Amino acid sequence: MEYIKEISINEAVLHILDTNSDEPILNEYRLDLDEDVYRFLLRHTERCLREEELRYALFNEERNIVKEISQEYLSGQADIVTASKEIARQMFTLMKSNSNIPSCDLAAVSISTEYGPMLGIFKMDYIKNFTHSVDFIDEKIGIKILPEYSGLPSSSSKIQKCAFIKPVRAGQEFNLMVLDKQNKDSNYFTNKYLGCRLIDNERDKTKNLIKAVEDWTRTNLDGKADEAEMVRSAVKQKVISEEAINIEELSDSIFGEKVLEKESFSEFISSKGVSETVDIDREWVDKKLKRVRLKIDGDIDLYLANEVYSDRSRFEIQRVGDGSINILIKHVTNYIEK
What is d(CA 193, CA 87) in angstroms, rounded to the nearest whole number? Predict the structure, then answer.
């Protein structure tokens, strides 16, 4: 997966899309990227690009305004004000046709990265703030607290929907990256607005493999802590040490001559959409598996670094022989209570 680390903001435009109005309020000027505005946009861009729910996507073959206008901008055929106004109009049309889509500001942001230029589109839903109102009642002061929906998400808040569009080239693995935290009954942003289809990348495939293994383990080895630990440890070691994992070979290495378990494991993993061979996303694994969290018998939590989990001089799992295990934390010289 392309983990973007070098980001520069070139220019940006903000438009107001209020569904209580008949028309969008479209900006005729680029934003003044002073220090505060630049930092605000940069932090949202960085945060969205780090989101684990950010997905690769390919534009559909059908005609789509967002695709066409973004490509005109990225190829230098349109300026960002003109392009972003058309992109904003398209979103406003969808919003007016669907009362469930909340009002927002729409930001179009041109960014440069180590992988080339991109056009970022951010749907900035208004956040709920509170203000006070002062009334005079019978010559007495009355103060109320009133909600208002007008603020933009702060740089520490998470944006729910955005896209980073690349210049479209023949043979590309993907055309854009999409963050779409949607309700189950809502698909307007990805399907209708962007007109694209999501595809799995190495990170998605790695995550799906680990989740499928955990689902199988919880379903089939409930109450068998020793066997569950064996499966989890074997898979984790493979994921950490290998660049690609073949599911049949993984099943063989875990279960050996246990034919029924081997078939059950392989069939279950396949049923979850995991491909026969999974290319491992090394950066995601190094980050995600640095720490191990264990929930023990529902009322004990252990949270430890992976190197400690693997260090038998400090942490050990002992098999009792009746399906249960003992977990030992060794040579403790200091601890604090939180």
Answer: 9
